[in-house]
Design a protein that fits this description.
heterodimer, A: five-stranded mixed beta sheet, 25% strand, globular, B: alpha+beta, four-stranded mixed beta sheet, four-stranded antiparallel beta sheet, 33% helix, 38% strand
């Protein structure tokens, strides 16, 4: 399973702070994004960044390992 | 002693943070600080409180990276960054940054750089609570 976390405005639009996506061999980050974007298009309108296991990821073709933690995030507004 | 980089719900004491900074070196000739506070007015609306959400583990990691980079880039002797999360009332403190260096110029530059970078790189989001409803804040460029 891939654990996907959402925070702030993205979590509000998804209606959850965490979902699970079934892992399959050869899975890449874009697969997870495409799956969730189809379910929550309004949330992904504001997604600007992705992280895997706590690190910023710019390459959506990144291969994922089972039990990875993925986060899709909107622009930050701390401070 | 508390960690130099923290995310916490409770308020912080700038006096305690500055004492901790000063305790790290007696060569410190300049200390610059920044405190971000919750305003009671934004975008033409009254704001009663601000609610902060954070990807905690990554936020602390990113804040530590910023501190490390500032130490190197500006030749700091020490730096501290504290950011609150949860619900913060209008007028309360949100974020504290302190940069200590041998001289004032790098301390001031580092403090300015740190808050600008924090806003860009640290996964924290704020929602303003107003009498007209709640709204997530869209970052200013």
């Amino acid at each position: 399973m891939i654990k996907v976390l959402f925070f702030g405005p993205v979590a509000e639009r998804v209606g959850a702070s965490e979902v699970q996506v079934k892992f399959h061999a050869g899975m890449i980050l874009q697969d997870v994004r495409a799956h969730l974007q189809a379910l929550h298009p309004e949330a992904f309108e504001i997604v600007c960044f992705a992280a895997v296991n706590g690190a910023h990821i710019h390459d959506m073709s990144l291969p994922l390992a089972d039990y990875s933690e993925v986060v899709f995030m909107s622009r930050f507004s701390g401070g | 002693m508390k960690d130099a980089v923290r995310i916490q719900q409770e308020d912080f004491s700038q006096d305690e943070e500055i004492k901790a900074l000063q305790a790290s070196s007696k060569r410190m000739g300049g200390i610059a600080t920044f405190i971000g506070c919750a305003r009671d007015f934004s975008e033409g609306r009254e704001v009663t409180e601000i609610s902060f959400d954070a990807y905690g583990s990554m936020a602390v990691a990113e804040m530590n990276k910023l501190r490390d980079e500032a130490m190197t880039r500006f030749g700091l002797l020490d730096a501290r960054i504290v950011h609150r999360v949860g619900v913060i009332g209008a007028g309360e403190q949100i974020v504290f940054i302190a940069a200590g260096a041998e001289h004032r110029a790098p301390a001031l530059q580092a403090c300015h750089w740190l808050i600008d970078e924090l806003k860009q790189c640290v996964p924290i989001w704020k929602k303003e609570v107003t009498p007209q409803g709640d709204a997530w804040v869209t970052p200013h460029p």
